[in-house]
Amino acid sequence: MQTHLSETRFDSLKLAEPLKKAIEEAGFDRCTPIQAETLPLALAGRDVAGQAQTGTGKTAAFLLALFNHLLSNPAPAERRANQPRALVLAPTRELAVQIHKDAEALGRHTGLRLGLVYGGAGYEQQRKQLEDGVDVLIGTPGRLIDYFKQRVFDLRAAQVAVLDEADRMFDMGFIKDIRYILRKLPHPEKRLNMLFSATLSYRVMELAYEHMNNPTSVKVDADQVTADRVRQTVYMPASDEKVRLLVGLLRRMDPRRTMVFVNMKRTAEELCAWLEGNDFHAQVLSGDVPQRKRLSLLKQFETGELPILITTDVAARGLHIPDVSHVFNFDLPQDAEDYVHRIGRTARAGAEGDAISFACETWAMSLPEIEDYIEQQLPKETQHDQLLVELKPRAPIKRRPGGPGGRKKAGGRGGRGRSGGRRGGGRRGSGSHKGGND
């Protein structure tokens, strides 16, 4: 949703030369609004609690402040190799991976060592990385706590702490873990603290005041809650018409990079079979997809090799995939805020995009709440009969092991063992499978 820039230029900020060089190489000159509001505060050593949606440039804001603080303040003399100087906490693997990727670009000239840990993959490799020593540790709560309790690393030398998408931490049930980790850091007055969240709700600000040093609240809202350049449309099909309508719409457009959101993993698997049977190359991204395959799918999607990605809300936040042309809400989300995050996958960095939603009888009850939340009435397409097509037989459904829903038996990813996963889901009982990303 990064659709406009502020008048603040990066070269006007008191940034270390290695950071200015990386910014110039990346082709950036002016700050986004959230960067213009938060960077001067953080660069001056003040704690910041920022409200900003995904795609507004908040990741670069906290990374630049983090790197600058480490470059400007020497490490404690007694620091050991396995003591990170900065900690960045993210709720999902995908977001942690993306933050690490951005950190590699912005920190390329700093000489600071980056570490990345998350559940589901690379247990021994990640462990060795921590033992060898990192300056900036980026990770998800479950795997971090696993290594911490084994004393692979400790946080007594940390000079910076960042909590990204704090509201999502609450939604996914990680908040006890977050408080546990934050209590292992030096006193808030002895470090720079930054928190970012889509909403600075009471519970988020309570967390901020508990673990930060008198943070300054910064709220940057777009002119509209949803991306300015997203063309939004709602169709009103019957539930049994949705696949035919989706195939009809896809045949009329160029779905070179299309995301299709559903509320349940089983729906994703069935829909993928229908699309494959009707000559569309599609794959499913959900909480039960192994981490290596998950990253492979995202890479294929980003390069254009995979044109259609069907996903549950596991991918609704934190992914920075360029040039997504279309977002379909095959199922309207149950949470109005998730609608904003879903359609925010398109029309990024000033581009345009289309967000097409199906309000069937099962999920149409969410539409009024969504419209209230975004403070606008969505255009309705009530005549869609001409778009319905006859379907070819669907391909075989590819289910993951573990029964009809594909979920593994208890113990497969639970517990903090060598799998590194701690929690299996987001909102319990919702069926939306948002979690599985610690």
Main features:
single chain, 438 residues, Rossmann fold, 2 domains, 7-stranded parallel sheet, 14 strands, disordered C terminus
Describe the structure.
The protein has helices spanning 17-26, 33-43, 58-72, 93-106, 123-132, 141-149, 166-171, 175-182, 202-211, 242-252, 265-277, 291-303, 336-343, 367-374; strands at 48-51, 86-89, 114-117, 136-139, 160-163, 192-197, 216-219, 230-235, 258-261, 282-285, 308-311, 326-329, 353-358, 380-381. It is of the alpha/beta class and 438 residues long. It has 2 domains: 10-219, 3-Layer(aba) Sandwich (Rossmann fold), CATH 3.40.50.300; 230-387, Rossmann fold. The strands form 2 sheets. A 7-stranded parallel β-sheet has the order 3-4-2-5-6-1-7, sandwiched between helices. It has a 7-stranded parallel β-sheet with strand order 10-11-9-12-13-8-14, sandwiched between helices. It is globular and about 70 Å long. The two termini are 26 Å apart. Mean pLDDT is 84; it is low at 402-437.
- Per DSSP E runs of 2 or more residues, the count of β-strands stands at 14
Query: In which range does the helix fraction lie?
Result: 25-40%
Q: Order of strands side by side in the largest beta sheet?
A: 3-4-2-5-6-1-7
Summarize the main sheet: 7 strands, parallel
Gyration radius from CA atoms, angstroms: 22 Å
Task: Supply the CATH class of the largest domain.
Answer: Alpha Beta
Task: List the secondary-structure elements in sequence, H or E.
Answer: HHEHEHEHEHEHHEHEEHEHEHEEHEHE
CATH topology-level fold name of the largest domain: Rossmann fold
Proportion of residues in extended strands: 5-15%
Question: Alpha-carbon distance between the termini?
Answer: 26 Å
Low-confidence stretches are: 402-437
Number of domains: 2
Average the pLDDT over all residues and give the rounded result: 84
CATH level-4 homologous superfamily of the largest domain: P-loop containing nucleotide triphosphate hydrolases
Structural class call reads alpha/beta
